[in-house]
């Protein structure tokens, strides 16, 4: 990510370690686990990271609920290789998140000791700091207003677009509202350009693999595809229609 190589990820919303383990072996560069909107709460974070690591294919990334250094530290101690921090509005909030991912003197993270993070990334603070990524989300009107300052935050590795909340911030009545489609595309261009100028990676969540391919071609450096709960329902609907002869 720091080299801004193209990366593809997949999103996990279900608290289903067996399902997570299976998806983690498919070949995605990272598996993003939702600790904000998904049904998985903090007790399931470590199990999810264990499930990802079991396949030794993808890196585990956790979205924490908020700009909370304690939650960020818990996610990293659980073995996450990176954290996604939602609803970041200012450079000050981005700095709180970034510093929570680094030990003294670069940040405020407490050395975890004999927990999963140590098994995954070692116990030398400087080496651990280099092994994890801090990613903050750009998804609010305030974040757009403070975009350049957020991207310039020391110790920040990437910004990540949440297109649903960003659409609402731009005036959408619902995600996918055609009335804000042009404004959304303009905002996405602003974000990729700002990240490029700051020398950091820029990611986005998308609904389909083809969308990921398009966004990477447009200048995003990583893209996360859909989610397990979405694909579970889509598969069930497709097979039901086929069984009824409706497909």
UniProtKB/TrEMBL annotation:
Gene3D superfamilies: Phosphoenolpyruvate-binding domains. It comes from the Bacteria. Keywords: Lyase, Metal-binding. InterPro entries: Aldolase/citrate-lyase_domain, HpcH-HpaI_aldolase, Pyrv/PenolPyrv_kinase-like_dom, Pyrv_kinase-like_dom_sf. The keyword Lyase applies. It holds the Pfam family HpcH_HpaI. GO terms for molecular function: lyase activity. Residues 9-233 form the HpcH/HpaI aldolase/citrate lyase domain. Belongs to the HpcH/HpaI aldolase family. This is HpcH/HpaI aldolase/citrate lyase family protein.
